[in-house]
Amino acid sequence: MSTATVADAWVDAATPVLDQLGTLSERTFLDPDLSALHAYKDSGPHKRVIGCFPVYTPEELVHAAGFLPAHVFGGGHIAEIEYADARIQSFVCSICKSTLELGLTERLKMVDGFMFPSICDVARNLSSIWKRNFPEQFVAYCHWPEHADSINARAYLRSEFARILDGLEELRGSAVSIAELNDSLDIYNENRRLMRALRTLRREHPEKLTLGETYRLFRAGGFMRRDTHSEMLARALAEAVARDAARRDAVRVVLDGAFCEQMPVEMIEMIEQAGCYVLDDDILLGHRWYSEDIPANTDDPLDAMAGAFLEQAPDCAVHYVGRQRRVEAFGEKLDRAEADGVIFASAKFCEPALYDYVLLKDEVERHSLPYVTFEFEEKAGLFDAIQTQVETFVESVLFYDDEPDPDAPGQASSAASSAAEAAGEQP
Amino acid sequence: MTQHSEYLHQGTGRQLQKELLQEYFSRLNSAPERGEKVAYVFISGNIAEYLRAFGFNLVFPEVTALQCGIKRMAGTFIGAAEDLGYSPDVCGYVKNDIGLAQTSSASPLGQLPKPDVLLCNYAGCRTYIKWFEALAEMYEAPLIMLDVPYQRRWDREAQDFATDDVAYVAGQLEELIPRLEEIAGRSYDHEAHGRMLEDSVVAEDMWARILESGKHRPSPFDAYFEAVFFMAPLYVLRGLLPECRQFYEATWLEIEERLEHGIGPLDEERFRIVVEGPPPWPHFRAFWEMFKKWGAVSVASSYAKVGGIFDRGFRHDPTRPFESQAEYCLNCYTNLN
Description:
With 427 residues, chain A is of the alpha/beta class. Chain A contains 15 helices and eight strands. Chain B is 50% helix and 8% strand. Chain B has a four-stranded parallel beta sheet, sandwiched between helices. Chain B is globular and about 55 Å long.
């Protein structure tokens, strides 16, 4: 196995990928200098970097144009807010502020454009603020259809993809061919297939791969081309399958609310270390925006993307699908995961997650499951209170939660709630 | 109708507005008794004429919320919503409405009827989606999305000619007809729809003239505090014949008279100001008094545009009802980038 691959630039070929996740993180999303993006930009005269804001933007189009779709998912621990407050309200989420801060402090100078999806009012307004502050950049605000069962939605969405592609073609100075688009769809299909396989493995054998490892692996993909990322994922998958690890007596949980702003990776790791197996979640949700392959052999790839989007895009806090009620879909998710409990983790000031929480927790109560709630910020260096909350939650489930009394609905959840109160955090 | 002794028309607008809205809400609240159907819809870019062409009575939850605010009842309802788990950091309008629904209490507008359909025309504010998703659960009412794309071209001219977006929204309005007919239990009346839009155009013309009058010195009306009263019929009563149009015809006479006699909302106009943002409802009167005390008159405001930017020339077009209502949604103030 000595054939050199592109992935070798990121991870050492002789060492298991899963043993190099720390270094990989340092080279990608934890790197304060964003060197990976600079390196891509400097690697050739026509290399372009397009910033992608969560949750899903059509990076397949960026890839097809030969550019790097870079996941700029906030500044996390690398940006101190100094200038952004002057251009955006104080009562908005951290990710919008820190992303703007990265731009205003010229740390995203390698970026030639930015795509923002229609996830919330703050992200939408950030797109306009971005255009005003960086008028030379290609800035696309992508409006995703919320009336998915409309007979008009597919044509609309195709034209929306075409509009974004037009902008990318202008940046490139030439048209993107159908073959290039289909190749890109192929590469993304392969990448998503591998991520699906890793997630399935996690659901069936959570002892073989931690949530933190999965996060580090997936997140690194936002800093490299997807074919390169797939090489890495394929190696990691084989390693994880072969892992010999003992199953812990952990609480099986579903985590909801962290679909946009990124939790600090240490907080993600803490949740499982505190005694949970997170068997389903909405972290990095954009990676599984399409639950199946997008047909990559048609003569109208944009239409193929539009069709797949309308059929497959996940029901979530920031996209109204309408195929079924949101609470129903969430209930099914709990059943699929055979969950013992739920963690609601929403970013501070994240309206979509905070609204959803109320409806979803009612569904959790209908399932007679306990839940715990906390708010986080991407920049949370210390999260002792949250850790105590999660640990108390785990204990309450493992040691105190017998069969719920059918005459006392919500009893199980009140145990978790009092655990939350004991930890001094307001849900 | 109260009248200032020296003038014929002073006080007409406020008085008529009060009477018309009282009558409107009283009819609305008794709609279920008459066997009439009720649709909930949002103010921004609202498609009142379209829904009224199916015979729907309309509830505008934002209007309910601001009424609760101004009457200082919102605190109780917001508290009730927070007891359900809503965060202190989310929109007070939403919490007011949900608290009201939960406690089944009467609003200042009376006991509002429950929705037969929630039509989410979320022009510009994505919170609307989350709001109606919650109401759909609470009322077990069907939720229909009208997908109105945000204005996302940076070049204003390109945006104004975004015909593909107009066709998309108009297409949805046409395709929703059978579904709404089923809920309404009656047919969509195309001819009535056209007549309503004709009346809306007259009202819109008058309202644009009232807004323009702020350019005069002194300004004959306060484009923020008074506008709150003068704009309400245009957002709530459009499509009701002939109330909406009559209101603006009568109110224009009042403004015209003020112009003729050089009178404004205050005895002396010391400062001419432009106001951005919605009014602080629970303190509306105290806030207004503060401006009055300083002789400050609003000559323009963004809040007066939330329901439509008629001052920029938009008018409904009765000959193209669907396209025209689509253009209205797409070009409303909250949908501009």
